[in-house]
Amino acid sequence: MAGGLSAGLSAWPPTAARAADSGGGWASFADRVRAEFTAMGLVGAAVAVVSSDRVLLTLPLGVRDLGTCVPVSPSARFLVASTTKSMTSLLVATYVDQHRLAWDQPVADAWPGFRAPTDELTHTLRVRDLLGMATGIDEPPALSGLHEGDPTAPQLLQSLVNLPVKAPPDTTFIYNNTVYSAGGYLPLLHSGVSDDDLTGRFANEMRRRVYGPSGMTGARIADDPRGLVVDFMRGYGPDLTGANRTLAYGPVGSYAPAGGTLASLDDMAAYVRMQLRRGVSVNGHRVVSARNLAECWKPHIPVPVSPELDPDATSSGYAMGWIHNRYRDGTSLIWHNGGIDGFTSFIGFLPQHDLGLVVLNAMNPAPTGPFFYLYVLNLLLSERFGLNRGVPAKIHAQYLAALEGLRLLGRQTRPADPAATAPYLGFYEAGYRLTRDGHHLNLHLGPRTMPLGLLPDGTYVMTGGLLVENKVRLTRDPDGTPRIEVVGFETVRRTVGLS
Q1: CATH number at residue 358
Q2: From CA 446, how far away is CA 468, in angstroms rounded?
Q3: Strands 236-238, 55-62: parallel, antiparallel or unpaired by DSSP?
Q4: Hey, which of 115, 214, 225, 257 would disulfide with 232, CB 3.0 to 4.6 Å?
Q5: Residue 377 belongs to what domain range?
Q6: Rounded to an integer, what distance in angstroms lies between the CA atom of residue 92 and that of residue 386?
Q7: Are 390 and 480 contained in the same domain?
Q8: Is the peptide bond preceding residue 367 cis, with omega within 30 degrees of 0?
Q9: Is residue 144 scored above 90 in pLDDT?
């Protein structure tokens, strides 16, 4: 795999670059993307195809908000979620360029306050390890999946020592937003920034070292764009009828290094072009050295590949904020996706072919959001390079099956019985509330509202919201205290009831 990356770095732009555009323009590709957007019944999205020296296609789709029906523009801001990880690794790389950090430097040497779950990990983990998803450290699914907005940065850093260790380092791919966020804060901690000032200083450093220099003039760290910018997207997700419903903006808080960027299609296109230009922005500014940028692209731990949806991939590995795929013809695809309440995103580029792709979608990741970017990516791979032929049709079929699965579950769901659920109403641990609004039973967590319906087996199901179709159980502790089990995430006890 390293050989493929080296080949892509040997010249800029690569001699193979023009092969990607040898079929002429991108009108036919754009027509097929538009048709799929319509067929999926999406609300708003934006697609860009770029090379190092130009934007080949800019394709805004749909509307920013179903209420106003204002069309999506290239400057409309989306929450781009975990694609932020590559920007965070870029931030760290700028400090490595300045010799203020080193990739192989022990974290405890850079920040003496670092504490991992074991003494051995505390002393052996390196700067690159915090950004590499191979520490062997796991995290509870609810920690960064539901409670991003809860901990302060000091609390997040303190929580590292209590995370479970599931494997030896460098043996298993384990996605961990908490560890990654600590890696993003590391340059600031090394510089002596206090724990309490980390979130604000991190946002400033991202603007100063990453967004501005890369040409991402509209990008910023944000949870909720309202009141910050004018041109922004509302996020949506399907309910159990398949209809699109507005979702609240999900809190990111101290997890910003793992997924806190708000950016437009124009911003993300400029960012991917900077990658293709080996660290030089579209304005000619050297953002990061080519050497340390390439270090962020190098895979080191295998990532599972779907034989059905990525049949021509021969390997895949996590790098630092990027995933690096290698295909049967030697092509490398360096990419990352993202998902947060109401939004999914994808950025990727093929360095040997001087071609990059951005797909932003105002649709919830669960359960249908990723299908659009998967379709667009595989359409590009199949049409331009003959890779993953037939996969776009499979993705479309899987999307339809997922949507029908929601509707089938919806047909089995009925309203919750007010008498049966009344004893469970109230406030619960970890910030949950269970309330009833007329005939509707709702589970709340921060800004999120997750309506509940009753299934024939007596369990409840989320009929909309971030975790649509996720099961919920209302039970009691042995002492009779009501509790809520969000299946697959966590169980919480009631603290205060509602009269």
Answers
A1: 3.40.710.10
A2: 17
A3: unpaired
A4: 225
A5: 2-91+200-405
A6: 36
A7: no
A8: yes
A9: no
